[in-house]
Design a protein that fits this description.
Length: 403
Amino acid sequence: MAHQDDFDHDILILGGGLVGSALACALHGRGWRVSQVEASLPQDGAPGFDERKLALALASLNALQALDVLPRLATPPAPIRRVQVSRVGDFGSVRLEASDHGREQFGGVVLARELGQALESRLRDCDGLVRHRPARVTAVHPGAEGPEVQLDGEAGARRLRTRLLVAADGTRSLVRAAHGIGVREHDYGQTLLVCSLATDQAPDGTAYERFSAQGPVALLPMAGGHYGAICAVAREEAAQVLALSDADYAAYFQQRFGWRAGRVRRVGARSGYPLVQVVAERLTAPRCVLVGNAAQTLHPIGAQGFNLGLRDALTLAETLSGADPGQPALLAAYAQARSEDRAQTLAFSDGLARATANASFPMHVLRSMGLLALGQVPGLADPLVAGAMGFRGRVPALSRGGA
């Protein structure tokens, strides 16, 4: 039987991105020796701390407020007060108003970079947190009593042993592979182009999602009077579209999106991300647990990825207890607690991506009927609203009163 002194840490988080950092915040003050391994220093930009725009569900905003992260944002979240969904060639559309559901907003939009900086600020105040950075993980050795991780950092090579190893190391997780956890993978054959843009109509709190056989395009309201824009293009066309001049890309986006938000006047620098779904076949191994993109990397449709990963982190922090956080019963309880939410979100994300890309006439009719029904039948859109706010199923009755 291993003793306390046999372990360097009780909980070792591999990954300095948004979900891993949120977990470190959530574990603060709970009595464990927690450590985080990060590949880069803050000024280098940790994974995920970039110019991507994140639509944070209301539940995520509430959680980040409770973690004392939200007040540290350089720019307050731009509120999403309504959501408009449509598809090229289909009749009918859905317009969801937060005020119709007793809320001021469904959520808010932030820059991933600024959220990363706010998390970094909060982590600096987490006394007792040990941070190995910059450090590269060179090997992971599973162990029923305590996994070991080999690091190569500024202080040279070293080995760390932990009671619980948390894989927050991204889509191509080294931890997941070392523990023999397989994945289901689906390549959508598309690249997501991300940028900021301005139109001749100031954002009014509306988030737009527009589908077509080419893939989704979307506009998210941002502070400062501009939008965060995403546009999916076929993989083989991505390099050509990325190389367009600003004026030509503005015209391309306008043609794909339409005129709902007015004329596109200006676009910013663009970056591309391949759209590939990667889903771990299980969430745990002996004294090891997966969270965030290591557990599941989703199609960004519906903006579910980070919100789901944050719920992973919060659920794990709430589930762990006692002197030994790596007990099999606790990890089994975590996997069970995440099962329904994870399955529903994966089904929503993947199903919506495939259904909206299907150009067949029967699917056109079904989609059009569905869009009309969602907009006309009272209560039918409630599950969609609950998902937009980050609540699974119906919005909890006690949460309906305030924003």
